[in-house]
Design a protein that fits this description.
Strand content: 15-25%
Number of domains: 4
Shape: flat
Strand order of the largest sheet: 10-14-15-13-12-11
Oligomer: single chain
CATH architecture of the largest domain: 2-Layer Sandwich
Number of strands: 19
Structural class: alpha+beta
Length: about 525
């Protein structure tokens, strides 16, 4: 007998994965019930679910999965007509049964009458059963091993600490070289060479370990995206709308911790698109693409778009000084009716809060009569990033490389005033210049000096969409990988810092949120 307590969580994880795939597959199968490949996929996943349930001794789950498998075969071969809605109900019942057995001590649970209804419509003969059992992919060599999230997070933390130690060893290496330079001898030369070789090798090993550990925490987006075809299908049916739902880029990978925070915002955006975006018939697209070193997830519809004039009227009525986009995300709604799906304005406020909490940002692109696109800009990983270390008013700050276009010496560019704003003429374009020490309200190191009077320093050019700025810092020290330690939401909201990092000497250094600066200035 299987030790159920020991394997319950593994059973839950594997079952949920198969059920998500069944939901997504059924949506495709409903549109193309003669498709042999979709039917085969559905049968194989229900067959696997049946097997792992039987191994755990969960008879009702195994029986329902078995009946599901046979009914798919019958629908595919037109032995029974319709029945797809019943299969959706069977998946829901399987979810209920899985949750019930995992959260209770019972080895057996009872299913509702749906099990008998599916059973009446299914028929699996020995030929079909044998064909499924002979599928080589079911019994192929194990290539993947499931690891508990807590253990993986602990490993990432250890890799991060090793990186800090690597930076400390780099400082030690420089001191060793300086020491042996002042005490020359053949023996000292050989000792120095040996120590430096060991330290360089250690650095390479830590870099490789860091890379591999971060790869472990990357998860394909389809684990989140696969939940939505069924939801969109059910809501469209409820609202009596014809909606074509398209998923693109689901094979891209993100940090698991980011994925955990992505589900709820996408639910709100998809429900919003179904309720407000599409009138009667239309298309909704959920897509993901890689842009430089971050990922953009978008939810778009081809509906009527946002009436910005109406938004402006509401802003005036509420005496709000927020921008159009920020106003929409502040918890208001332009909908005249509240429905079960949306209409209170809470959803978009949740989207903005959740995405910003993981270091991302949200954009809206909409034109009346041409639809709406919500863009979620997300970091690939929350653990380690590449950044510039800069000096400002005798203090150190980190600026993520993602936000940096170019570095220029302030003496090498032409500067002039345009409407009381100092600009740098770069590639025949006037780019506004701002001093980071003034933005951060630093008062030392000549902070009262005007930007045009600065004789030394570096301009960091950055761009967000079509907005460009040049940020003046005293100097750029180096570029390196840094550990990201998140800040509380209240701290982030009141400052231009997105997180903090720890240097090799143990010094905490704030990470500048350059995108917020661009938006504000």
């Amino acid at each position: 007998m299987v030790d159920q307590e020991k394997y319950k969580q593994l059973f839950l994880s594997e079952s949920q994965e198969h059920l998500d795939i069944l939901d997504a597959g059924l949506v495709r199968f409903e549109a193309d019930m003669g498709n042999q490949e979709i039917a085969k996929e559905l049968m194989m996943h229900s067959h696997t679910l049946k097997g792992i349930a039987a191994t755990m001794g969960y008879g009702e789950i195994s029986n329902l999965a078995h009946s599901f498998e046979g009914m798919v075969e019958n629908i595919k071969n037109k032995i029974s007509s319709g029945g797809v809605s019943l299969l959706f109900g069977a998946v829901d019942e399987l979810r209920r049964l899985v949750a019930e057995v995992v959260n209770s001590d019972a080895k057996q649970i009872s299913a509702n009458p749906l099990v008998d209804k599916v059973g009446e419509l299914e028929h699996v003969d020995e030929k079909i059963e044998t064909e499924i059992m002979r599928q080589p992919e079911i019994f192929s060599q194990i290539r993947e091993v499931k690891v508990r999230a807590e253990k993986l997070d602990a490993l990432v933390e250890l890799a991060a600490e090793l990186m800090v130690n690597k930076l400390r060893l780099q400082t030690a290496k420089e001191k060793i070289s300086a020491h042996f330079t002042t005490a020359q001898s053949k023996e000292n030369d050989e000792t120095e060479k040996f120590l430096i070789e060991v330290l360089d090798n250690h650095k390479q090993l830590v870099n490789e370990l860091q890379y591999q550990v971060l790869q472990l925490r990357l998860t394909q987006l389809d684990q989140v995206f696969n939940r939505f075809p069924r939801m969109v299908r059910d809501l469209a049916e409820q609202e009596k709308k014809e909606i074509e739902f398209i998923i693109e880029g689901s094979s891209l990978e993100l940090d698991r911790n980011i994925m955990d925070s992505l589900g709820e915002p996408l639910i709100h955006l998809l429900r919003n698109a179904i309720d407000h975006g599409i009138e009667k018939k239309g298309k909704i697209t959920l897509s993901a693409k890689r842009v430089k070193d971050h990922v953009v997830v978008s939810v778009s519809d081809d509906g009527e778009g946002i009436d910005w004039k109406k938004v402006d009227e509401m802003r005036e009525k509420n005496k709000s000084d927020l921008s159009r986009e920020d106003f929409l995300f502040s918890g208001v709604s332009t909908s005249e009716h509240v429905t079960e799906i949306s209409g209170r304005g809470v959803g978009l406020a949740v989207v903005k809060a959740r995405i910003e909490a993981i270091g991302g940002r949200v954009e809206i692109e909409s034109e009346v009569g041409k639809g709406t696109v919500f863009l979620l800009h997300l970091p690939v990983s929350l653990a380690i990033i590449k950044a510039l270390l800069v000096q400002v008013a005798d203090r150190k700050y980190a600026i993520p490389i993602t936000n940096v276009n170019r570095l220029l010496n302030i003496t090498a560019v032409e500067k002039k005033k345009q409407a009381d704003q100092l600009v740098a003429i770069i590639d025949e374009e006037g780019i506004p210049l701002f001093r980071l020490d003034k933005i951060l309200n630093l008062t030392t190191g000549g902070a009262t000096e005007a930007a045009e009077d600065i004789a030394e320093g570096t301009i960091i050019l950055s761009q967000l969409k079509d907005r460009k700025i040049g940020l003046i810092v005293d100097s750029v020290e180096t570029q390196q990988d840094i550990i990201v330690k998140t800040l509380g939401h209240n701290i982030r909201k009141k400052s231009y810092f997105s997180a903090v990092t720890i240097l090799g000497d143990g010094q905490p250094v704030p990470i500048v949120d350059l995108e917020s600066i661009i938006l504000d200035y």
